[in-house]
């Protein structure tokens, strides 16, 4: 019973700390932060796959599959968001200037 309260306390403390850290990040640093979080999402995906590999019962397999699906979606979504943010900083040439009608 004590282990459950300790785990809940650690989870609540990490959630509060994460929220406070992320809310104080300047806008200019969001792209590097997103790239760093994609690294963490990759580690979460590997952990979910390892947990799924050790699953034995039907419920464990279902939860493991759900965890892998969510982790993969989270990692892919993070990379898509990073690419879109980086595209905002690219200089595009206006092709309509040289075109004649």
Supply the key terms:
mainly alpha; single chain; 75% helix; flat
What does this molecule look like?
The protein is an all-alpha fold and 101 residues long. The protein has a domain at 27-87. 75% of the residues lie in helices and 0% in strands. The protein has three helices and no strands. It has helices at 2-23, 30-53, 58-87. The relative contact order is 0.09.
Could you give a quick summary of the protein structure above?
The protein is mostly helical and 101 residues long. The protein has helices spanning 2-23, 30-53, 58-87. The radius of gyration is 20 Å and the shape is flat.
pLDDT below 50 for ≥5 consecutive residues: which ranges? none
Please state the structural category: mainly alpha
Could you tell me how far the N terminus lies from the C terminus, measured between alpha carbons in angstroms?
Answer: 77 Å
Mean pLDDT across residues: 81
**Radius of gyration from the alpha-carbon trace, in angstroms:** 20 Å
Strand content: under 5%
**How many strand units?**
0
Helical residues, percent? over 70%
Number of helices: 3
Q: Which descriptor suits the 3D outline? A: flat
Give helix and strand order, one letter per element, not per position.
HHH
Largest sheet: none
């Amino acid at each position: 019973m004590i282990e459950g309260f300790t785990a809940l306390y650690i989870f609540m403390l990490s959630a509060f700390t994460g929220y406070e850290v992320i809310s104080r990040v300047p806008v200019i640093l969001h792209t590097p932060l997103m790239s760093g979080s994609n690294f963490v999402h990759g580690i979460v995906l590997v952990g979910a796959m390892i947990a799924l590999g050790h699953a034995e019962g039907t419920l464990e397999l279902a939860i493991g599959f759900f965890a892998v699906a969510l982790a993969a979606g989270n990692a892919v979504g993070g990379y898509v968001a990073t690419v879109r943010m980086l595209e905002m900083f690219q200089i595009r040439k206006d092709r309509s200037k040289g075109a004649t009608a």
